[in-house]
Every structure is written in C-alpha cells, then in structure tokens.
Amino acid sequence: MNESPTLALARQLIQRPSVTPLDGDCQQIMRERLERLGFECESLRFDDVDNLWAVRGSQGPLFVFAGHTDVVPVGSESDWSHPPFAAEVDGDYLHGRGAADMKGSLAAMITACEAALTGPEAGLFETLRLGFLITSDEEGIAKHGTRRVMETLNQRGEKIDYCLVGEPSSDKRLGDTIRIGRRGSLSAKLRVKGVQGHVAYPQLAVNPIHKAMPALAQLSAENWDAGNEAFPPTTLQISNIAAGTGANNVIPPVCEVDFNFRFSTESCHEDLQSRAQAIFAANDLNYDIDWHLSGEPFLTQPGLLRDAVTRTIREHTGLDTDQSTAGGTSDGRFIAPSGAEVVELGPRNATIHQVDECVAIADIEKLSELYAGVIHFIAKKIANQLSG
C-alpha cells in the first residue's frame, strides 16, 4: 500500500498504546519530526503526565497547534472488528483507538508544517512563529497537562496569539463545523442528610430522598439564562442519585445526587452556585455540597483566526462552516484565558470514544491541507501588514 505521509504518521501514532495519562512515546515521534523542521522542543513532565512544548522562529506572533496523545480505554478488545492499536486500513478508513480523537489530527498538523516549511512559500514564516502544545492528559483529569503548561508559559511571559485545536469538530462532512468557543462546566455532588429509621415509623426518622425530591424538581425546572447569539441557554442535568441501605424497610440516612451545569457566557459559576443553594435553603434541606469547576465558558470573537479557518475551509471544501460552541469541554478552556484566539477544527466525531473508532483516510489527508492553508493565510496577512 502506497501510504501518504499523513496516513503513515497517523498509523505510527495509533500503534503506540497511550491510554490516559500515558503518552506511549507518541510525543517523541512528533518531536523528532519537528526538530528536523527547526523547532526547539521542550518536554514538560508534571506528575505522571508528559507534555511537549515546541516553538519555531524568533519573531512575530505565535500560532500554536494544540492537541493530545492520550486516548480513552478500549473496553473489551474482543468487541472490536480490528485490533484497537493495530492501525489497520480497511477500505477508505483507518481504524484504531485515537484515529479520530485525535491522532489523525496530530499527524495532519505535523505534515501540514512539513509541507508549509519546505514549500515555495516557506519564507512567509520568517515573521510568524509556529508552535505545538501537546499533552497526554486531555482525556483524564486534565490537571497536569495543558493547564500546567499554560501556567508555566504565563509565568515565563510566553504568549500564544492564535491556537488551532485538533479536536474532532466536524459532523457530517470534514469542515462543516468548527468550534469557536465552549460552554463552561460546573459539577456538584450534593449530600442531603436525613435520619435513619424503620419505614413503619417515619415519624421517628427523616427521609432524605423525600426531602431532596421537591428541591431537585425545582432545580431541574429552573430557567438559568436564555443564552445568546453564540451560546445556547445554560442547562442542568442530574446524572446520578444514590440512596438506601440495601434493605427495603429502612429509611436511609443520606441521599447523594450528582448534577452538572453546562453554562453560557450569560452566567458565571458563582451565580449558579448561589442560585442552586438558595433553592436548597428554600426547601429546608440539611445538606453539604462539593463543587468542581472544570472550565469557564470561552468565545473567540471574529478576528484573524476565525477568518483564516472559515476562508480556508471554503476554499478547499466549498463549505460555509457552522461556527459552533456546542459539545463538551476541551483544552481550549485553558488556553483562551491567556488572550489567545482559539478555534477547534478536526475530523468527524461520529465514532470517537466508541468501539471500532475510525477516520476516513481522505479526511485526515484533507485536514493536513486545511491546517497548512490556515497557517499560510495568517502568515500572508502578517507579512502584508508589515510590508504595507
């Protein structure tokens, strides 16, 4: 089989098992390719997480490709049609864990830079620095990966101007959707306290389930905000309720509830917390609660990066891409607060985290073209600004 550079590299990366937080030496493979292009590469290991920070050039704004080498567990390998780390090609598709999320994107980033920096317009990149921020902690707790790298860069005074994240953003066709922001994520574990007792003598007990239900109904029915032009309204979902002692004749002492807000820029996490706790107080709950903020919402306003991505997609695919803030969280939430323009562009997300994850070979090859087109667009704009 005559493999393209992008397909060959994607297969090489997939064949390295790297279930979070393991990297499987994927970053070393990328580092060797980047160093040949003149990137200065630095390994940043925090706790059990490997991170790669690489920069090429000494002047001009900094454009960074961001992504992750870690993947989610495969489950039972016997359920897979192709071994999850064999990186087998079947017809028009490349199969394997990480094919779409996101080793195909990583391969496309590398080959895009190789094409751009060795092509006839390589001189454009004398006034645009290129960088890579790669972690092995995106699919896990995301504590020692991009978050820590950004803290380190901020301490050094290193600033990212533009960041393209390779998360699988596309829906039906490559390039039909990009992410220009993400909703915030705020989780809570609520423990409603009661008094254990016999179900035949409820007057001697306090049933925490009964106490919790009206409050949870009110919590679920609350209109948190109306959203805005870029974001849908904030939503709350209850994901787990646990109570009981295992016996059907015992009123339990506690009822535990997990819930999560996905919130727009119309709300802040402090306000959501206080409004939820006001509902608990109004329902006379005896409770304690643990809050966990995974990330604030962010939105990249119209500017050079959004223009570069949308124009490049239109030029190479004919599509007018949907500029969305839907979906879960991504590591863009750690990069955007620095002031960087952040956009996510990657392959279709149809099989991510599933058994038989796969990606269309034509899509990752086209993705390499799109990535190269984006950095060329920005480099030309900057060069024209300097000359004009």
Strand content: 25-35%
Number of domains: 2
Write the CATH architecture name of the largest domain.
3-Layer(aba) Sandwich
Q: Give the strand order of the largest sheet, numbering strands 1, 2, ... along the chain.
A: 1-2-6-3-7-18
State the helicity in percent bands. Answer: 25-40%
Provide a compact summary of the structure.
By secondary structure, the protein is α+β, with helices and mostly antiparallel strands. It has helices at 5-14, 26-36, 99-118, 146-156, 208-221, 269-282, 304-317, 332-335, 361-387; strands at residues 40-46, 49-56, 62-68, 89-90, 93-95, 129-135, 162-165, 177-179, 181-182, 184-193, 197-198, 235-243, 250-251, 254-263, 287-295, 298-299, 322-324, 341-344, 358-360.
Topology at a glance:
Layout: H1 5-14, H2 26-36, E1 40-46, E2 49-56, E3 62-68, E4 89-90, E5 93-95, H3 99-118, E6 129-135, H4 146-156, E7 162-165, E8 177-179, E9 181-182, E10 184-193, E11 197-198, H5 208-221, E12 235-243, E13 250-251, E14 254-263, H6 269-282, E15 287-295, E16 298-299, H7 304-317, E17 322-324, H8 332-335, E18 341-344, E19 358-360, H9 361-387
Parallel strand pairs: 3-6, 3-7, 7-18, 8-17
Antiparallel strand pairs: 1-2, 2-6, 4-5, 5-19, 9-16, 10-14, 10-15, 11-13, 12-14
